[in-house]
């Protein structure tokens, strides 16, 4: 699998806090964001303070695309990617934290 990530700060239309934009095979994942690996990593596993970013006050956009022939979707409608697969969890964290 391939994980691509980007982080944006600020913007006139952005809301305060962390907004996660998730893609699987270049298709946006619109539902069940709370249980997704990207949302959980962005909200719980990344120390934003070490980058001098305040997650409750700053406007942060986290964009992650996971491309693979076998994405471990959870649910019957391919609505989100579960965070129980450790290699994908670690790859998402590395991709978001990379300089």
The share of residues in extended strands comes to: 25-35%
Name the average pLDDT: 91
**Which structural class is indicated by helix and strand composition?**
alpha+beta
Determine Rg (CA atoms, Å): 13 Å
Task: Name the helicity range.
Answer: 10-25%
Topology:
Layout lengths: L1 E8 L7 E8 L2 E2 L8 H9 L13 E9 L5 E2 L5 E2 L4 H12 L2
Parallel strand pairs: 2-4
Antiparallel strand pairs: 1-4, 2-3, 5-6
Helix pairs in contact: 1-2
Short characterization:
Helix content is 21%, strand content 31%.
Question: What does this protein look like?
Answer:
The longest helix has 12 residues. The chain is an alpha+beta fold and 99 residues long.
Attribute tags:
four-stranded mixed β-sheet; globular; alpha+beta; single chain; 99 residues; 31% strand; 2 helices; 21% helix; two-stranded antiparallel sheet
């Amino acid at each position: 699998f391939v994980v691509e990530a980007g982080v944006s700060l600020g913007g006139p239309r952005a809301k305060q806090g962390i907004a996660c934009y998730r893609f699987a095979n270049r298709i946006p994942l619109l539902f069940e964001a709370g249980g997704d690996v990207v949302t959980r990593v962005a909200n719980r596993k990344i120390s934003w303070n070490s980058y001098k970013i305040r997650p409750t006050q700053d406007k942060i956009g986290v964009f992650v695309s996971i491309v693979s022939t076998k994405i471990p979707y959870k649910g019957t409608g391919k609505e989100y990617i579960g965070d129980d697969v450790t290699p994908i969890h670690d790859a998402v964290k590395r991709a978001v934290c990379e300089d």
